[in-house]
Amino acid sequence: MKMTDPQESTKSTEEAKKNNATETNKGNDLKTRKAKVLEQQQHVTEKISDLCRYIGFGIAAACYAIFTSTSDFSVELVAENQAALLFCAGFAVFTILLDYLQFLSGYISVRYALKDSKYQYNKKKITYKLRFIFFYIKQVTVSVTVIILLYTLYEALSI
Q1: pTM
Q2: Residue 27 phi, psi (nearest 5)
Q3: Which of 3, 43, 58, 157 is the 20 to 30 A CA-CA neighbour of 146?
Q4: Which domain holds residue 94?
C-alpha cells in the first residue's frame, strides 16, 4: 500500500477545489456575457423595429403632403413622378403592416410558449418563423422606399 503525505493530499484537494471554482467562474462569466449580448441584441432589434416604423410613417406622411399640396413644386413632382411616389407611399404603408404582423406573430408565439409545459417556443410553428421573416422584410422594404424617395427627390431638385 502506498503512503501519501497528508499535506500533499490537502494540496491536491485544494487545487481541485480551485480548478472547480475557476471552471465555475468561467461558466458564470460566459453566462453573464451571453446575457449581456442577448440584452444588447434585444435592445438593437427593438431600435431597428422602432426606426423602421418611424421611417415608414414619415415617408407615408411626406408622400401624403406631396400629393395634397398645391405648391408648384409638389404639383410638378407628382406629375413627373407619380408612379415612384405611389410606390413609396404603398411600400411605407406595407412596412408599417409588416411591423404590426411581426408583433402579432410574436404575440401568438408567446401564447404558444405559455401553453408549453416547459415554457419553450415551438420553433417549428409558422408564427415563430414569421416573426423573423417580417423583421427582415420590413428592413428591406423601408430601405428600398427610402432609396427610391431620395432618388426621386434628387432628380426633381437637380433639374
Answers
A1: 0.77
A2: -65, -45
A3: 43
A4: 8-157
DSSP 2: -
CB 99 within 8 A of CB 66: no
**Tens digit of each residue's pLDDT (9 = 90 or more) over 68-126:** 999 999 999 999 999 999 999 999 999 999 999 999 999 999 999 999 888 898 899 99
Distance between CA atoms of residues 99 and 50, nearest Å: 9
Whether the CB-CB separation of 89 and 99 falls below 8 Å is answered with no
What CA–CA distance (Å, rounded) separates 148 from 61? 15
> Considering the domain boundaries, does residue 100 fall inside one?
yes
Number of domains in the chain: 1
Query: Is residue 130, in this structure, part of any structural domain at all?
Result: yes
Q: DSSP code of 107?
A: H
Identify whether 3 is part of a domain: no
Question: Which amino acid, 132?
Answer: F
User: Does residue 99 sit in helix, strand or coil?
Assistant: helix
CA distance 99 to 80: 31
Q: Tell me the Cα Rg of the chain.
A: 28
